[in-house]
Design goal:
five-stranded mixed beta sheet; phosphoprotein phosphatase activity; transmembrane helix; 9 strands; disordered C terminus; alpha+beta
């Protein structure tokens, strides 16, 4: 079963959507994989820092000192805010040193990493009582956290026994202080997106190239299919028109041939010659190899004869002609006849009731303007009207007899004389052809 063009477009859209999905999935997976590799590298280097008590706890707040402050907090000798302030002060004090150390680890790798450690909560006696709520910053590097990634989470359990003297007594008692401290360490690679972009640039560009190439190939395929479809339609029309044009002379020749079998008559021979000439005139436009050999430029008299013949055969057309150029038109007689007859006959075929032709000398070139009030053409048709066998794609115009070769020959003649041809047209208004030709007769070598 043959698919229609719309079906091809729907199938392409589906395949293209699948292709985008596959490429997008690959990009996403690669992005995730690269991100995991970066995080793994950072965690590997930062994981070793937790064992370095000298860099962190000794310089910030050692475990023994911290425990002593917790005991003071339980005894209400200090407040929770005072404890947090002590942590903040120590974090600020060591921030520059910690920043330099972290930068020394990751800047050679092209990474900007920031780090912080927080206490989420301090509990006394087996989590029975929270004596300080987090987050409390233990240490932090310079930088602003936007999307921190957890490096580690842990619990620090510390305890201390104190001997407390009972008031007004020589007796004393042992008090066990046990604390649970929930801690979390986080990091962030602040230039993560830039690193991933650089890593994925080649893959992203190749993906875009594949998608663009796929779209371009589809576009070119559709364009070629449409062009071939139009050419096939045009060729069918040409064959139909030629068949129609040949039927009458062929039928006449058959009758003449039967008549000749019975008797020889000079009038029959004249009929045969006339029909043969008609066949020749029908087929001549199909030969695009126009020859203009050793022909002088057309004279004003010859040019006037072309227009007089047209007026004689189209007396119903209002025809206006400006004064003819005197020896300034470079066209040969044959080319002039082909050019003007095709333009004028086309105007009549396509509904014109008047035709105006003007000649004007412009900056060393002769301008010829042919105007009519025919059906006119849509702007979308104009790029194709000079193609061989092309005919206007309208039902009310397409039935007009012709091979679609006239404007092709007009364009070919103008090009051979190194001229310029432009056309403007509006539906139901009319069409204007403007031709600019050099004064000198200089023919192109391309025949």
């Amino acid at each position: 079963m043959e698919l229609k063009p719309k079906s091809y477009i729907v199938l392409f859209t589906l395949f293209f959507a699948v292709l985008i999905g596959i490429q997008g999935y690959q990009l996403y997976n690669t992005y995730q994989l690269k991100q995991r590799d970066i995080f793994a590298t950072v965690k590997s280097k930062l994981g070793k820092l937790h064992d370095n008590d000298k860099l962190f706890d000794d310089d910030l707040m050692s475990k023994d000192i911290a425990r002593d402050y917790y005991i003071k907090l339980v005894k209400n000798e200090i407040t929770a805010e005072k404890l947090k302030e002590l942590y903040r002060a120590n974090a600020h004090k060591t921030s520059q040193k910690l920043t330099r150390y972290v930068d020394s680890l990751f800047q050679p790798l092209g990474m900007d990493v920031i780090l912080k450690k927080e206490i989420l909560g301090i509990y006394f006696k087996n989590l029975e009582k929270q004596i300080a709520a987090g987050p409390i910053t233990v240490y932090i590097t310079n930088g602003t956290f936007r999307q921190p990634v957890e490096l580690s989470s842990s619990e620090w359990i510390t305890e201390k026994t104190e001997t407390q003297k009972i008031k007004d007594s020589i007796q004393s008692r042992e008090i066990l202080y046990t604390f649970f401290v929930h801690r979390k360490t986080s990091f962030e690679v602040t230039n993560l997106n830039w690193i991933l972009f650089k890593e994925l640039t080649s893959l992203l560009l190749s993906t875009l190239f594949i998608l663009a190439a796929f779209l371009w190939l589809f576009y070119r395929t559709i364009q070629n299919l449409r062009k071939q479809q139009k050419q096939i339609t045009v060729l069918h029309d040409v064959v139909d028109n030629i068949s129609h044009e040949l039927k009458t002379p062929i039928a006449t020749l058959k009758i003449a041939a039967k008549t000749l079998r019975k008797s020889t008559d000079e009038s029959i021979i004249t009929v045969i010659e006339r029909q043969v000439n008609r066949l020749e005139q029908t087929l001549d436009p199909l030969n695009e190899n126009l020859q203009t050999i050793d022909q002088p430029p057309v004279t004003s008299t010859e040019l006037q004869a072309i227009f007089d013949d047209f007026q004689l055969t189209n007396s119903a057309i209002a025809f206006q002609l400006s004064p003819l150029p005197d020896g300034k038109l470079c066209l040969s007689p044959n080319d002039a006849t082909t050019l003007f007859q095709n333009l004028m006959n086309n105007a009549v075929k396509y509904g014109a009731t008047w035709i105006n032709i003007f000649f004007e000398d412009q900056k060393g070139k002769l301008s010829v303007c042919i105007q009519d009030n025919g059906y006119g053409m849509e702007e979308s048709e104009l790029p194709y009207i000079f193609d061989k066998f092309y005919r206007i794609q309208k039902d009310n115009v397409h039935d007009t007899k012709g091979l679609g070769i006239g404007l092709f020959l007009v364009k070919k003649i103008v090009d051979r004389y190194h001229g310029q041809l432009t056309v403007t047209s509006k539906p139901n208004v009319g069409t204007t052809f403007k031709i600019q030709l050099p004064h000198a007769l200089v023919l192109s070598s391309e025949i």
